[in-house]
Amino acid sequence: MLDVNVNFHYLFPVAQSVKLYPLFGLTMSNWMFDMHDLDVDWDGDHVHVDDGGNHNEFRIGANLGAGAEFALGRNWAMNVEFRYQLVDDFDQGVINFGAAYRF
């Protein structure tokens, strides 16, 4: 799976070292299913076994979520965020953890 995201957020300070932010953006997902993978349609319409080698699916969708950034001294910060990816029939929730160094 390849997942590329471009997100926008605006930081709202809620304490001296804590900032909260809403998140929205775009996601591009490419899923590759190998031979004999089971592709289940959750609506119950069909169950399909792809037995012809590799099968690729490419989708573009939207990201919606929120996060928090925590200052760790003068130059370092860490963040945690949750985003929900709305991608046709590949919707999913994602939790991210990150670190940043400000020059």
TrEMBL record:
Ranges for domain Outer membrane protein beta-barrel come to 2-103
Q: Name one Pfam family in it.
A: OMP_b-brl
What InterPro entries does this protein map onto?
A: Beta-barrel_OMP (IPR027385), OMP/PagP_B-barrel (IPR011250)
Taxonomically, the superkingdom here is Bacteria
| SUPFAM superfamilies per UniProt | OMPA-like (SSF56925)
Q: Which UniProt keywords apply?
A: Signal
Write the protein's name: Outer membrane protein beta-barrel domain-containing protein
